[in-house]
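Show me any protein, fold above all:
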Amino acid sequence: MLLLDNSAWARLLAGRVSRERAEAITGLMVDRQLATCLPFLLEAGYSARSGRDREELMARLAHLPKVRVDQSIENLALRAQQELAAVGHHRVAPADLVIAACAHQADAGVLHYDRDYDLIAEHTNLSFESVWLAPAGTL
């Protein structure tokens, strides 16, 4: 299973990936192997063009599995931020830390287009697969 990050979702919606990659992601959605969590949903809703667009987006995402943020995930995200700060990377986006903690807790990966996830995977105790939507710098 892969958790969605808005960096990948926005590029998918904009049609900025190859047809083959978009079809593969659609297959993950159909197979319920693509999941959401609160930080992603809030970012996706924030990016919507209008209230109606937001409602349509949320309806589209509602059928996907959802990883719930609980106290354990909060603690994991805070610890990861502390670990990053210790090596000079304290400016990682808070939503990315929570999404990575959700992926760790769910034994999942993160589908993204954001170098923060490689930093989190490399410099913290969070264990998740960092899956780039496309190679870095190509979109």
Notes: The chain has one domain: 2-132. The mean pLDDT is 96. The first strand starts at residue 2 and ends at 4.
